[in-house]
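Q: I'm writing up a methods section and want to include an example of the input and output format. Could you take the sequence below and give the corresponding predicted structure tokens, formatted cleanly so I can copy it straight into the document?
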Amino acid sequence: MGGDILRIEGISKEFSKVRVLNNVQLDIEKGEVVGIIGENGAGKSTLIKIISGIYTPTEGELYFEGKRIEEFNPLNARKLGISLIPQEFNLIGELTVFENIFLGKEYRKKVLLNKRRMIERTKELLAELHTQIDPTEKIQNLSVAQKQMVEIAKSLAYDSKFLIMDEPTTVLTGSEIEVLFKIMNKLKERGVTIIYISHKLKEIKTICDRVMVLRDGEQIVVEAIENVDEHRMATLMVGRELSQIFPPKLNIADEKVLEVENISVRGKLKDISFDLRKGEILGFAGLVGAGRTEMAETLIGIRKKSSGAVRINGKEVTIRNPGDSIRKKLAYLSEDRQGTGIITSFDIIENITLSSLPEYARILIDHKKERAAAQYYVDSFKIKAASLQTALEFFSGGNQQKVSLAKSLDTKPEILIVDEPTRGIDVNAKREIYYFLNELAQKGISCIFISSELEEIIGMCSRVVVMKEGKITGILQGNDINEEEIMLHATGLKGVA
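A: Here is the clean output for your methods example:
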């Protein structure tokens, strides 16, 4: 530790006269890792956007290395040595990995770009992260987890003094998280300071020196990490004791609503077979690259199967595109929220009714009916918004995720596929979604639940399909649904090789 690198004095922020952050005070030492936690809408994103120069505070001052920050903009923050790894990716899909990493700071040979040197440096950065990504691959061809690793590599390329990580592990596996934490500890040894935002309280406890809790824009407490456990952090976040996180599991019915028989996709899936029962929550587990998302995308017509059959309610169906899937009462919540889930420039109503618009239109759109539907979901999911006309770009990641789920549900599906449904959502909002999905199941809606978080797979699902490298390695039930058994199948140490 080497004295304060950042001093936050009475920082407040208002939007349209609504105060979203109020009188935050914090001194951060050089080489320290400070966790910031709070429910969605607590003010975390607003605070880090002020520190990284995206927002100018309404009140208060920031001092970096003892000097008052006069100019709030991302370029000035970058010059000071402040880098932000955003929750939503800031990458250009049409450019390659190395072009994204060195955008705006390209290596040159006189006037020409030194592509060879940038590619080699990109290989070095990715090797540090223990990830095998081709530096010349276009971003649009990468998985969500690979994009996250590119974002981290991009920040390492800047040699930052002060690094802000906003939910960096939501799509990473346990082994990838371990690598990230090792890198963070190395950075800390070099004197790099880190602000770490996560809804995974176990991670906060593991990697942080201190933790700040925000609630409704107010600073509740700043504590040394050894003085708080995960339960205490969760209680401080929500301002009350939390009841049971997961609802009781439901019994498995006999009636099959979906039967998947030997479907394959060249280079992605091989002989996938399983069934889904009426009112069941069926889990899909596996490491990154296991093929879970590819399986979901095949079912809804984004990917074309090369062989196999799909039956809904006993009848074989052909689903060529997502429109077909909606007509077959099958809906999908994408893991890539901003890529395919929502349109951030649209408001709540426009997003929620985007896939179900024919239900609101005869000759003209019934805006009253649209508004009523949007209000129902806002109330059901406790979505925090100034109004139904608020554009989603002003929402926290968790509230955007709730709107994305509402959009999927508004098509009135009988089968719902949710891919990483609690990504970037706080512990209380997770609980609300778990109970909401359980209520849907009780009403007879069947759910395929894809998640990288084993805790929620174990807590939510009556059966669990485990995948590895595009194949199913096991379908678990009852007492076999535990972390050890799932990981043995996910790594190929047990089950079909």
